[in-house]
Write a structure and sequence with these properties.
Blueprint (H helix, E strand, L loop, with lengths): L1 H36 L1 H5 L4 H18 L11 H27 L6 H31 L5 E6 L3 H10 L6 E7 L7 H6 E3 L4 H7 L5 E4 L6 H13 L3 E4 L11 E5 L2 E5 L8 H21 L1 H15 L5 E7 L5 E7 L22 H9 L6 H7 L3 E3 L6 H10 L12 E3 L14 H16 L3 H17 L6
Parallel strand pairs: 1-2, 1-4, 2-3, 4-5, 10-11
Antiparallel strand pairs: 6-7, 8-9
Length: 468
Amino acid sequence: MATYMGKESTLKGCIMLIDIALLITVILGVYYVEGLYYTPKIASVGSLPALIAIFVASFLASYSIYPSLIQKRIVKSEDVAKRVTTTCLLMFLFVSMLLQFTRGNSSFPRSFLLTVIIIYTPLLFAERLSVRKIFVLLRSKKRNVKNIILIGSEMSVYDVYKTLSNPEYGYNIKGIFYDGDSEFEEFKSMKLGETSDIYMWLMENNDINEIYGYIPAEKQDTINMIGKFADNHLIRFYYIPVINVFGQKISMEFVDSTPIIAKREEPLAKPLNKAMKRAFDILVSSMVLILIFPWLFVFVAIMIKIKSPGPIFFKQERTGLDGKIFFCYKFRSMKVNKDADKIQATKDDPRKFPFGDFMRKTNIDEFPQFINVFKGDMSLVGPRPHMLLHTEEYSKLINRFMVRHLAKPGITGLAQVTGFRGETKYIDQMEGRVKKDIEYIENWTFFLDIKIMVKTVTNMFCGEKNAY
């Protein structure tokens, strides 16, 4: 077991050395390219060995706080990207502080620092994914594997078994202990004995790295016995609680030291994720409002005034986060009418004027919602906000409809880029939209937002049949 732990530490060390080698390569590349084309500028950068030392020291400090994730058995690419971004941002702060401290009043090489960070971040992500591919290949060939046993025959144990059976994760399941019979055929062929046989089996087999299992509370002595054995032999013991009373993906939380079960996973309930999403919303919305919105407003305002008498903006109460009401802004795309707060737009809606129809098909009418995003009423990505009447009606007709209000409404959303945009003539269309909204809330990642935004922009240029 000690040998295995040593291999894990060596693996982490090798990853760190590869990361540093890549960093030095980037520094050298940027230094010599700037020296070749911008000789006066590179002179202000300073001693190359000193720069390398500052960057490497900063990386090591950042790495000690946010080490690599790729050596983990089960990890998503989104998590790797998030960790790489965090590591590089922290390194940027450390380098900035060290350069400021060591250089005093001399010029600060901002362009050099930014260039290195901008180039290194995506390269580090690509490098770590490549190294992870190598790990996956080795594990699929029975290299770098962990020997494990399972305990219990409950569904939750079977779910763990199915996941850990994936050869890419590098787990060698030696067998399963459970009492009586099992409903799962795979378990029957892998049974090593009853729960009472575990201790003697472990005494005779000293190559186990991890134990996963469920043992009923009434067998506390067995749990204690296995726990003590695992502690004394450097084996990690993971207890699998049979707690999924909701029959879906759940979240475990704690009130002080007491575990509680949340009905669903909500990544955006975590302060760091919420802050990151809000910061991105402010950054993008402010850029759009400064660089694009002013000239777009002038053009759209003129066209609206020419084509249809009335206001430029359409302001409507919509249901937002936690059911709170806010005013949602749009460029007016319809003639002024008394049904605006009651009836959805249809394909050949007579209320639309020609330029308004064009705006709706190209999403131009949604641009004022960047004001809502900047204010904090909305996000760039999230469930689309509904008019109050529809919220009241559909909340009575569709199960879990109100769950979609656990996240800020968005200018675009997962439902809109997966075929549930536009008019909902039938109840099953709205049910499909709600299902996608809840899927978004339970599986949010920063990169899911980016994917949805890219798909939205693509649809703007390619056209959508439900855009009317």
